[in-house]
Amino acid sequence: MLRYSVRVPGSSANLGAGFDSLAVALDCWLRVDVAMRSDSRIIDAGSPDLLGGANLVIDAMYAAAGRFGLQLPGADVLVESDIPVARGLGSSAAALVAGIVAAGELAGCPLTPAQVIDAAGEIEGHADNVSASVLGGVTVSLRAAEGWVADVIAAEIPWTAVVFVPEVHAFTSEARALLPPAYTLPDVVANVGRAALLAHAMHVQRGDLLREAMADRLHQPYRATIFRHLQPCIAAALDAGAVGAALSGAGPAILAFSPADCAGVVGAAMQHTAARLSVTGESWCMRVPAHGMCVRQLA
């Protein structure tokens, strides 16, 4: 019987100014082990609580089957993950990517990265996290007339990703509800320029540009109303030696890029600053994987 494993990295989206467009893969992973059954049932053999009330991996498998006309045989599906859930680190995107990839493999019709990104982006409503999870590195994505388009800006970057992960959960729907229905032209122009500078800085590895490039006017000022640690943690990370910092996705985690030799200091600075505001959590120092999701046959 066919047995295989799908591994998908977590991710941090927006990177400040790149709202719903830019993202970076992170070295925390979701793994799905699939074992074909002799009957037609797809069985949840164990999964973490993704706080969505359902197994997102299996839901994504069925969604992919419908979208691509796949015939799925029965299988046992075991999900394990060390991606913090509902913290702005791409846990749901990783689950969707894993399920879509798993469906293609189970049906004997492996899907291309472009197909996976398009399908997962359609489910999510944005493809920033899923692009980083599929491709690795730092990515950009957008919705074009023919569907979601994504590519890698930089497969590798010279900085460590330092993430302060609060204990409290937050949901993307709640964070999006804080955003205004329209923006002023100066705010839009400011973010367009910074997003372009941010992509350039990542591509040419110019850390001296990131502090300004990761500043934002479209979402962080509004989300700071519920994440009181946001601006103080960003300031603390920069003061401790980070080259840039921003809210991770819809929050509440904070992402900073730091030279490796001061990554621990940056993480401690964010954690201590948040603690003074009664926001408890821990800091993780992670590399940025150059490659995203992968499939491996199991014996």
CATH topology of the largest domain: Ribosomal Protein S5, domain 2
Distance between the termini: 10 Å
CATH architecture descriptor text of the largest domain: 2-Layer Sandwich
Q: Approximately how much beta-strand content do the residues carry?
A: 25-35%
Bulk shape: globular
Q: H/E series, N to C?
A: EEEHEHHHEEEHHHHHEEHEE
The level 1 CATH classification of the largest domain is Alpha Beta
Helix content: 25-40%
Number of helices: 10
The largest pleated sheet is described as: 7 strands, mixed
| Class from helix and strand fractions | alpha+beta
Write down the Rg.
19 Å
Low-confidence stretches: none
* pLDDT averaged over residues: 95
Tally of discrete structural domains: 2
Strand tally, please?
A: 11
Account of the protein in words:
By secondary structure, the chain is α+β, with helices and mostly antiparallel strands. It has two domains: 159 residues, Ribosomal Protein S5, domain 2; 127 residues, GHMP kinase, C-terminal domain (Alpha-Beta Plaits, 2-Layer Sandwich). Helix content is 36%, strand content 26%. The chain has ten helices and eleven strands. Strands 1, 2, 3, 4, 5, 6 and 11 form a seven-stranded mixed β-sheet that branches. The chain has a four-stranded antiparallel β-sheet with strand order 8-9-7-10. Strand 8 and strand 9 form a beta hairpin. The model has no long low-confidence stretch (mean pLDDT 95).
